[in-house]
Structures are given as C-alpha cells and as structure tokens.
C-alpha cells in the first residue's frame, strides 16, 4: 500500500489516498486512533460502475459518520469503475437487464450472472488484499465490518473471510444463484437494508437472500421508497448495529 496524499478533515479525521496493486482507495482514520488505542475498521462498499471520484461526497460523509463512532473506514475503486479497465461483457449484460425491466420482464439468471459475477470475482480478492494491508497498521484493530453494497460482494466476503465480524448490507442489486448458495455459509450478525419500492431491484429475490443467510442474528430493515430514498435515520440504526458488534476504540 502506497499513500499518495494526506489531509486532515474538519473533525480531525485523517484522509489518506492510496494505491494498492492496480487499484486506488481511500483510508479514513479518526483522530483518536493510535497504536495504544487501535480502532475497528469498516469496509465501505459502493455501487458497481460509478467510481470512487463520483461517489466521493457520499463516501466521505459516511466516513465522517463512522469516525464519529470511533471507527476507521476504507473504500476502494470497484473493478471496472473510474479509470479501471471495463469488465468484459458487463455493459452488454447491463443493457440486457434494462431491456428486460423496461419490458416488464424478470431478468434471466444468465443476465444477472453476466452482470454481477465478474464484479464479485474481482472485488472480493481486492477487498481481502486491502484488509491485509490496513490491518498491518498499528492504529487499526482486529475487528472488521462490511457496510453497503454490492450485496453479492458483501455476501461472498462474509462467507469466506473470518475477519469480517459483522455486515450491514444494502439489498439494492440483483443476486446471482451462487450468491444464494454462499449466503448459507454466512453466520455473522447481519443488518440488511431494503428499499421496498426499489425500481431497479427484485424485492422477492432480496427476501429470498435474507432467508438464505445462516446467521442466527439477522435483521431486515425495510423502508418505503425507491433506490435513492433511504431515510437519514436508517444510518443511525446501522451505526448502533456496528457499535454492538465491533465496539469502538480498543
């Protein structure tokens, strides 16, 4: 991990941009973080295809909220986004998905697989590499949470990486069949956010995925409204969830 810039934000949070392998990212650490008081880490997932620069205002707002709870946060450029090479076949799959939705049809499993799985297959190893590097820093503690989307990415990461202690997932994207199978291996505490009227999501598929998770502690937090209509208070409930399961400064 090579840091390329550093700045201190208004509340004392330190923001560092970095390069790792062939992708960039941003690490935020609260002012209280130190080797004597290491803090938990939140992995901030984001929608595929938008890019970290376009998402920056939302990411930094989330990071500052996380820092106020005593957590560090990290975000990485998703595969195929920003200046990264596009993922093969994804644009055609996205067009096929939109065509099916416009026609009032349910997108076929093949379309969903072609759209989501290339992202999952690339993103999960990159998240694991990021966790390797960030946890080597003395001011970062051992507890790690995943927050946000893409839900198939968060599901696989939670299924295969024992360092993920809790996950707050956004059910805002279609789910491949293999993700349903991976969900049965997820046993950590979960907080799943669902926008009930999400025009770009399959509500039934999201409910099936929630049912498939093997976690004995899992909460479905559903609100009326579309994909971008998440109420502000939903973040407060997610914050309480992470505080319960990750604590704060060690």
Description:
Strands 1-2-3-5-4-6-7-8-9 form a nine-stranded mixed sheet, sandwiched between helices. The longest helix has 27 residues. The protein starts with a strand and ends with a helix. Helices cover 38% and strands 24% of the residues. Helix 5 packs parallel to helix 6. By secondary structure, it is of the alpha/beta class. 42% of the residues are buried. The protein has one domain: Alpha/Beta hydrolase fold, catalytic domain (Rossmann fold, 3-Layer(aba) Sandwich), CATH 3.40.50.
CATH superfamily: Alpha/Beta hydrolase fold, catalytic domain
Question: Rounded to an integer, what's the Rg over CA atoms?
Answer: 17 Å
> How many structural units, i.e. domains?
1
Q: N-to-C terminal Cα separation, in Å?
A: 24 Å
Percent strand: 15-25%
Describe this protein with a few key phrases.
alpha/beta, 7 helices, Rossmann fold, single chain, 250 residues, 9-stranded mixed beta sheet
Give the structure's gist in a few sentences.
The chain is α/β, with parallel strands linked by helices.
Q: In terms of topology, how is this protein built?
A:
Blueprint: E1 2-8, E2 14-20, E3 23-29, E4 39-44, H1 56-68, E5 72-76, H2 90-102, H3 109-135, E6 140-148, H4 151-160, E7 164-170, H5 177-183, E8 190-195, H6 203-212, E9 218-223, H7 233-246
Parallel strand pairs: 4-5, 4-6, 6-7, 7-8, 8-9
Antiparallel strand pairs: 1-2, 2-3, 3-5
Helix pairs in contact: 2-3, 3-4, 5-6
